[in-house]
Amino acid sequence: MAGPPVEVVNACTRNGEGGSPTAVVIDDASLTDDDRRAIARRTGTSHTAFIDTSTADAPMVRFFTSAGELTNCGHGIIAAQAVLLHRSGATEHHGRQRSAGRIFATTAIRRRDGVEVWFDQGVIALAEHADATGGGIIAALGLQRADIAADVRVASPGTPRLLVPLRDHPTLLSMQPDFDRLATECRRLGYLGCFTYALSPTARTAAARMFAPAIGVTEDIANANSVGCLAAHLLDTSGNGEIEVHQGDTLRRPSSISASATHTGSGIVARIGGVVGLGPPIVPG
User: Fold this and answer.
1) Is 278 in the same domain as 260?
2) What is the DSSP string of 16-72?
3) What pTM was computed for the model?
4) Which end of the chain has fewer CB atoms < 10 Å from its terminal CB, N or C?
5) How many domains does the chain have?
6) Distances (CA, A) of 142 to 137, 172, 175, 192, 211
7) What is the CATH number of the domain that holds 65?
8) What letter does residue 112 receive in the DSSP assignment?
9) Are the CB atoms for 267 and 125 separated by under 8 Å?
10) Residues 58 and 79 grouped into a single domain
11) What domain range is 153 assigned to?
């Protein structure tokens, strides 16, 4: 039996092109989690967002990959909010979204090239030290110690991941991770994945690649939550919490995500934004 209609949008496009194909489904109470995983597999996208619209003031959104449910997905939030604005016919919306027991403040604004979405990521926990070499993660990434530009750091907006600074852009582009080994190491150490990045000379922009084979995503076209984590790290270490990150070039799907981090009484928080290109709805077979 065919599943519910699926809308596939391109989250976090760059100059109107590329972006991460993300499936968005208006959730059906009759669906089981097995059904949701099956829909995620059939869409062929890395992530699928399921929106429960029964509570209009703060819709519940759940995220699935082909491997199972995620507690959070940054570019999935951006995709879901763009679809909700598009369905409403409005030009702008300021609202809230619930996911995994958390509430995210969101803003969606219609533009000529799609929908611009921002969301408040919340507090980001930064570990003081992270030794990724002893556990074999650096080797699993296909890197040498000399390829690492500064200290590797653990950052968590709810799920920990490694931030791995590389010495230059060519090193980033030439990476060839051992995905089986990387998945094993990340699962053993409790990391979602590894966000590798190379800062520009001004440190206002960066190029990045996100590898998360432990959750079934070998390489992410766009990883918004990790960009927020990077903004938090940069604020903590340099005082500059503004960053625009380009991803997806090695996958021929250029993406762009912006983030702004600030200090609060609760810790460092980040606000994350990207533009969504809307496509026609499809029905999975």
Assistant:
1) no
2) TB--EEEEEEE--TT--HHHHHHHHHHH-SS-EEEEETTSTTS-EEEEEETTEEES-
3) 0.91
4) N
5) 2
6) 9, 11, 6, 18, 12
7) 3.10.310.10
8) T
9) yes
10) yes
11) 125-271
186 and 257 fall within a common domain = yes
Residues 62 and 171 in one domain: no
pLDDT tens digits for the chain (285 residues)?
466 888 999 999 999 999 999 999 999 888 999 999 989 888 888 899 999 988 777 899 999 988 889 888 999 999 999 999 998 999 999 999 998 888 999 999 999 889 999 999 999 999 876 666 556 899 999 999 999 998 899 999 989 999 999 999 999 999 999 999 999 999 999 999 999 999 999 889 999 999 999 988 899 999 999 999 999 999 999 999 999 999 999 999 999 999 999 999 999 999 999 999 875 544 444
**Cβ atoms of residues 45 and 64 within 8 Å:** no
Tokens of 44: 């062929």
Around 36, how many Cα atoms within 13 Å sit in the side-chain half-sphere? 25
How far the first Cα of the chain sits from its last, in Å, is 8
